[in-house]
Amino acid sequence: MKKNSKEAIVTAAISLFNTNGFSGTSIRDIAELAKVNTATIAYYFEHKLGLLEYCFTYFFEQYINKIEEAYASIDHGAKGCLKRLVANLLHYQCENNHLASVVYREMSVDSQIVREIMSTYSLKEKYYLQKIFEKGFEWNEFRPHSIPYLIIQLKGLLMMPFMNTNYLREVLYIFPNEPFFEQKYLKEINFWIDKTLSFEIREKKEAFIK
Amino acid sequence: MKKNSKEAIVTAAISLFNTNGFSGTSIRDIAELAKVNTATIAYYFEHKLGLLEYCFTYFFEQYINKIEEAYASIDHGAKGCLKRLVANLLHYQCENNHLASVVYREMSVDSQIVREIMSTYSLKEKYYLQKIFEKGFEWNEFRPHSIPYLIIQLKGLLMMPFMNTNYLREVLYIFPNEPFFEQKYLKEINFWIDKTLSFEIREKKEAFIK
Amino acid sequence: MKKNSKEAIVTAAISLFNTNGFSGTSIRDIAELAKVNTATIAYYFEHKLGLLEYCFTYFFEQYINKIEEAYASIDHGAKGCLKRLVANLLHYQCENNHLASVVYREMSVDSQIVREIMSTYSLKEKYYLQKIFEKGFEWNEFRPHSIPYLIIQLKGLLMMPFMNTNYLREVLYIFPNEPFFEQKYLKEINFWIDKTLSFEIREKKEAFIK
Amino acid sequence: MKKNSKEAIVTAAISLFNTNGFSGTSIRDIAELAKVNTATIAYYFEHKLGLLEYCFTYFFEQYINKIEEAYASIDHGAKGCLKRLVANLLHYQCENNHLASVVYREMSVDSQIVREIMSTYSLKEKYYLQKIFEKGFEWNEFRPHSIPYLIIQLKGLLMMPFMNTNYLREVLYIFPNEPFFEQKYLKEINFWIDKTLSFEIREKKEAFIK
DNA sequence: CATGAATGAGTTTTCATTCAT
DNA sequence: GATGAATGAAAACTCATTCAT
C-alpha cells in the first residue's frame, strides 16, 4: 500500500489553516491530522512557510488558468468575457472554498512571500481585467470608469463570501459550499455587471448618437 | 512626561496584528514596540487573547454607534439612510484602517471569542441593515431582493479595501488612508446603491403603476 | 536564597564545552547541569551562540589585560617584559584551563563570531607582541627574525598544553591544572626565550662590536 | 565517467569538518557537497562516527609511517634523525592540512574513539620520540631534559599552524598551504632543535671534558 | 503602577538513521 | 552500488504566563 504523504499533508494543512489561520496552526497538528511524522512535512516542504507557499502557488496557478480560459473569448464581447471570467472564478472558489479562504486571509499579512505572489499572479490578473475593461469601454459595453476602482468592487464581490465564511454561516445562514449558492451568487455579480458596470440600453443609444 | 502604558500597548498591538496577524505576533514583540515589559501587558490584559478581545469590542462599539447614528434618519427615506450609513462606516474604517484590517481578518478564524462577537455585534448590524432594506422595499426605493445576498454585496464592497490593503497598495496603487480615497470610494458604493440596489426612476414609475 | 542563574549557566557551559565541544553540547545538557530551565539560558544569552560569544569575550578581556599589564614594563627591557607576559598568560591559562581549552578549540572553526573576536583581540595581542619583539631587536636583546614566525612559535608553546589536554593527560601523564606544572612549563618557555629567541652573551658582544 | 562516491564523501567530510567541526557538520551537508544521497554515507560508513574514525586512522597510519621512516636513520645521529622526522611530519601536515586540522581539533574532545586512537598511535609516536631523545642524551647531542616537556614543545611547534589556521591566515597573513611556508617553518623548528634542544658546540666540549 | 527574573509547555527545525527498492 | 521516502528523537528556540519585588 503506497501512501501519498504529500497530498495528505496539503489536505490537512488547508483544513487547519482554514479554521485556525496559518500562524495559529502547528506543524504537529498538521502531521497528526495527516497521520505522518512532523519530519515528513519538513522533508517535502522544508519549513512551515514552504507549505503556505505551496498552497499559494497551487491556488493561483489554477486561478490564473481560469482567467486566461475566459479571456480567450474577449473578441466575442467584453461583457460576455467578464461574465465568463466571474463564473469561472466563482466556480473555482466554491470548489476550493477552504483553500480560497486560507489564501485570501494569508495574502493580507505582510510578508516577503506575499509580495512575491502578488507581483506574479495579482499583476497578471490585473492585466487581464484591465484589458477586458478597456475593451468594454472601447466597444461601449461598459460605462467609462476608473479601472482600479472597478477592480476593487469586482474583487470585493467575488472574494467576500470566502473571506467571511464564518459570517455568512453564523449570521446570514448562507453556506458557500452548498449547491445553489454558486448560481445564486453568480446572478448577483452578473446583476452588478449589468446594472452598475454596463450602460443601460437606453444610455447606450445616447452614447451611440454622440 | 507620564507614559501611558496601556495606550502604547494597544497601539503597538494593532500595528503588529495588522502586519503579522494575531497569532503571528508575540507578546514580546508588542512589549518591545510599546517599550514596556511583557509583564505589563499581562498586568493590563491578563492574557494575550484579552488584547484581541479589547480590539474587537473597542472597534465594534463604535462601529455599531455609527450604524445607529445613521439609522436614526430612517424615516427620511431608506436610500438616504443607507447612504448615510455607508458614509459613516467608510469614514470610520478609513480613520481606523489598521484596526479595521485586524478585526476583519481575525473575525475570519474560528474561535470562541469570534462567535461571541458575531452573536453580539454582527447580529445587531444585520438587524439594522435588514430594517433599512425592508423599508426600502416597502417604500419602493429598492428593488425587492434577497436581503442576505444584499448584505453580502454591501459588506463585500465596504470591507474589501480594508481586508486587502496590501493588494490595493502593491497592485492598484491605491491607499485607503489617503485623503481622497474615502470620498472617491464612497461615490462608488453610492453608485452601486443607485444602480444595482435601487429602482431606476423609469422602473419606479412602472412599479408605482402596478 | 538568591540563586545566581547566569553564573551557574556559564560554569556548566564551560565544563561541557570543554569535554564535548560547543556543537557537541546541547542547551539541555547545560540547563540540566546548571539546574535551570533551558528557557533561562535563552533569557540571558538569547541563543546558544550567545553563550559562546560570552565565553570568548569573558576570556579575552582578561587575556588582553594580562598582556597590557606585562607590556607596561617594556621600558625595563624587552626580554624581561616578554617573560613577564608569558608568565602572566601561562598563569591565567592554568587558572582557567577549561575555559582556555574551549576558547582555543572553538577559535579554530570558521564562523562570523570567530572572525570578529580575532579582529578585536588577536590583533591587539599581535600589536603588543610585535612591539616587544621590535624593541628587543632594537635593543639587541633578541636575534633579528621574522616577527610572525616568532609569534607562531611563542603561541604554539603557550597554547599547546591547553589545546591538547587529553594528550598531556593520557599520553604524557602531565596535568596542566596541577600545582607544579605552571612553574615547570614557564621555565621551558623562558628557556626558549633565552636560547632560541635571544642572543647568547657571546653573540651579543659580537653584535655590539659591529 | 565513473563517480567514486566514497572518495567524494571523504573529501567533502574533511572540508566541512575543517570549517565547522565534526559535531557542527551534518550528514546532509556532507551528502550535499559530495553530491550523493545521505543514505550512501550510511552505506559506506555505517554511522557518522565511522566517518570520523576513518579520518583518524587514515591520517595516523601515514603519520606513523612518516615517523618510522625517519626513525630508521637513528643510527646516523639523534639530531639528524629528529630533523628528518620533523621535516617528514611537517611536509605531511602541509600536504594534508585540512585533514590535519580536523584530526587535531577532534582529538581534543573527550570520547571513546579519541582514547582508542591515542592509546594506539599517540603512544607509538611517543615511543619513537622518547627513543630519539634518549639516544640524543646518550650521545651528548641533546641537553639532558625532561622528555615529556620536550615532547610538549616539539608537538606544540609542529601542530600550532594546523590547529590555528584561521589565526595564521587572518592575523598573521601566513598560509600553511602556500609553497614556501613549509621550508620556512622547517627552519624555525630546526633552529629550536639547534638552540634550545641541542648543546652549543662550546657546551658540548665542556660536557665532553667532564 | 510596573517590571526583571524565571519557567513549563510548546514550537519549528534538524539530525542521523532505516528500509524497501 | 546507491537512493528516495520516511521517521523517531532530539535539538534549538519561542512563547505566554507567573511571581516576588
From TrEMBL, chains A, B, C, D:
<keyword id="KW-0238">DNA-binding</keyword>
<dbReference type="InterPro" id="IPR001647">
    <property type="entry name" value="HTH_TetR"/>
</dbReference>
<dbReference type="InterPro" id="IPR036271">
    <property type="entry name" value="Tet_transcr_reg_TetR-rel_C_sf"/>
</dbReference>
<dbReference type="InterPro" id="IPR009057">
    <property type="entry name" value="Homeodomain-like_sf"/>
</dbReference>
<feature type="domain" description="HTH tetR-type">
    <location>
        <begin position="3"/>
        <end position="63"/>
    </location>
</feature>
<protein>
    <submittedName>
        <fullName>AcrR family transcriptional regulator</fullName>
    </submittedName>
</protein>
<feature type="DNA-binding region" description="H-T-H motif">
    <location>
        <begin position="26"/>
        <end position="45"/>
    </location>
</feature>
<keyword id="KW-0678">Repressor</keyword>
<dbReference type="InterPro" id="IPR050624">
    <property type="entry name" value="HTH-type_Tx_Regulator"/>
</dbReference>
<dbReference type="Pfam" id="PF00440">
    <property type="entry name" value="TetR_N"/>
</dbReference>
